Amino acid sequence: MELNNVILEKEGKVAIVTINRPKALNALNSATLKDLDVVIDELEKDDDIYAVIVTGSGEKAFVAGADITEMKDLSTIEARKFSSLGNKVFRRLENLEKPVIAAVNGFALGGGCELSLSCDIRIASEKAKFGQPETGLGITPGFGGTQRLARLVGTGVAKELIYTCKIVKADEALRVGLVNKVVEPEKLMEEAKAMATAIAANAPIAVKLSKVAINRGIQCDIDTAVMYEAEAFGECFSTEDQTEGMTAFVEKRDKSFKNK
């Protein structure tokens, strides 16, 4: 697996994915999106990874956006293909069975904000800044920003951010519900790893099925959604981890999950 713009590291049950184009503020070009797609392949088949952290290299940017140098001369057809590539990769990340935490260390603009939105949880450095500045460049968000942002923070706030190209600091992002937590810059990865480790300590299949139930249920009516939940709940009782978790609880001992 040869990667030029993305770094994949593994620490125990946690994988760390770093977008690595610091000279371009980690901007997303086609090559970087394809690298990320390859990394997702690797994460999907690795049963020993229970949680994933996504971050950016350097101190300035998580991902400053999609690569404008690549985009500026695209035709209509080429632009649609570029948007489709980004949406395909981000949708795969969103549907990855392992929970994904975005550790946002700096600018998360345009495609960078959209990348964070495709993750399950966002932890931001106090230096982080978020925004969808696309309309100021004559385009719309193209990697899911018009859809995920509205679902996360509501249509009113999403429309304000997209229409005005407003850049919000981490504290404002926390206030509107765009991020889960804001921490000091030097504690960002420590906090992300602590959360990933806490997730990885629980039954992986139960966490996976919880993610599936949430992602499916949020798209439909409540009656259908609770049916999805019942399916997930029932499926857990076919696993060794459910037996281990409940037996350990009754016996008042430490549990040992095996992802089975």
TrEMBL record:
Q: Does the keyword Lyase apply?
A: yes
Offer one example of a GO biological process linked to this entry.
fatty acid beta-oxidation
Entry-linked InterPro entries: ClpP/crotonase-like_dom_sf, Enoyl-CoA_hyd/isom_CS, Enoyl-CoA_hydra/iso, Enoyl-CoA_hydra_C
What EC number(s) does its UniProt record assign?
4.2.1.150
Write the record's keywords in alphabetical order, separated by commas: Lyase
Pathway note: Lipid metabolism; butanoate metabolism
Can you state the subunit structure given in the record? Homotetramer.
Q: Which family does it belong to?
A: Belongs to the enoyl-CoA hydratase/isomerase family.
What is the name of the protein in this document? short-chain-enoyl-CoA hydratase
